[in-house]
Specification:
disordered N terminus
Length: about 375
């Protein structure tokens, strides 16, 4: 009788467990069963290592690698990380292929990337459909974080940055008549120009002309000549890294004196533009001189490793890995649902950008800034 009772009890437990397992698969609880986190965690990384954005992609890779080395050397303890890096060739199609490969062939639970907003907009739905966590370090177009509960972004969205930058620059420069230029083939640039237009309408600022161009263009003389003839008080440029220095240099050659306010200008583009970058203003969120948590140690370590000062692309990539590491440390398991929940719960986490949080859409929350090029370097706009 005791043996029979024992067998019935075991059978009941098995049935109950199977039922619970089926319910778990249907409801996908936010707090999965705790798993062993001591093993190495493989993270997919999608970067533009060839194509139009290859130079930026290489800098981002350096930021990832530096953070990876620090974490694996025991600064955060277990778990250990491993990257599988895929090149998206600077295209949305390449990003889609890279995501599919990492998800369906490599079986990763987390992907860092893509970099551009256009690539991110194409790839994020794949992460959502497969319930894989994806974190873009640099995609700033509005609405991308809302694509899925499994996707997150480290940069501030265009409307957040513009909402901070326009009042600050307007108060000091007093522009009433402006011109804009934007890359019509890039998701971030088109969205930033739209955010600017909305801000100008709210401020009563007149937009004299909006001049489009395309990624890969090298001659901007026609657009700049039309702008010069209208004599605007300021010129706003929304572009990807390769085009920004060219626009500044060609504007300087034409003798345009109006201040340029350029999207996400970094020290790399400033150096490429040389003297033509002097006085250019940008809405960006980080400087090597910032006294934010760990920033000076990061700058020192990067400079010693790569022989140059880091730029914002390096900094945001470095911060991305540490933000993910914090989530993995706090997650109750290493499956994508547990990692997603841990990321969503990050609040006031110390990074090189300062206190960092995610909002309900998976978008970043921290304090934006405004910088100006003085004596060849980016400095606070005061």
């Amino acid at each position: 009788m005791k043996s029979f009772t024992f067998i019935v009890a075991i059978a009941t437990l098995v049935v109950s467990f199977s039922a619970c397992e089926r319910i778990s698969q249907i409801t996908q609880p936010a707090t999965p069963q705790v798993e062993d986190k001591s093993d190495e965690i493989t993270i997919g990384v999608v970067l533009p290592l060839t194509g139009h954005l290859a130079a930026a992609g290489e800098l981002m890779k350096q930021g990832f690698d530096l953070a990876l080395g620090e974490i694996n050397n025991g600064q955060l303890g277990n778990p250990q990380f491993k990257f599988i890096i895929e090149d998206d060739a600077s295209t949305p199609e390449g990003a889609v292929a890279a995501f599919n490969k990492l998800i369906h062939e490599d079986g990763v639970s987390v992907i860092i990337g893509p970099a551009s907003s256009s690539a991110t907009e194409a790839a994020f739905p794949i992460a959502g459909e497969n319930q894989i966590v994806a974190i873009s370090p640099t995609a700033g177009k509005r609405g991308l974080g809302a694509i899925s509960h499994f996707v997150f972004r480290i940069p501030l969205a265009t409307d957040v940055v513009v909402a901070k930058g326009i009042p600050v620059t307007y108060a000091k420069l007093g522009y009433q008549r402006v011109a804009t230029m934007y890359d019509e083939t890039d998701g971030f640039s088109t969205d930033r120009d739209k955010a600017l237009q909305e801000a100008f309408t709210a401020k009563g600022v007149e937009v004299l002309t909006t001049e489009p161009f395309r990624s890969g263009d090298t001659d901007f003389s026609a657009q700049l000549t039309r702008i010069q003839a209208l004599n605007p008080d300021a010129i706003f440029v929304s572009a990807l890294p390769p085009e920004k220095p060219l626009i500044l240099v060609q504007a300087d050659e034409l003798g345009i004196s109006a201040p340029f306010i350029v999207s996400s200008l970094t020290n790399v583009e400033v150096a490429a533009a040389g003297a033509a970058a002097e006085g250019a203003i940008t809405f960006i969120d980080w400087l090597p001189t910032d006294d934010t948590p760990g920033n000076q140690a990061f700058v020192k370590s990067y400079s010693a490793t790569y022989g140059m000062e880091p730029n914002a692309f390096v900094a945001v990539s470095y911060a991305t890995v540490y933000i993910l590491a914090e989530a993995l440390k706090n997650a109750e398991a290493t499956d994508s649902t547990a990692i997603r929940d841990a990321l969503a719960n990050i609040m006031d986490f110390d990074t090189v950008f300062g206190k960092f949080s995610f909002n309900t859409d998976g978008d970043a929350v921290y304090t934006p800034g405004v910088l100006i090029v003085k004596d060849g370097t980016l400095q606070p706009f005061e």
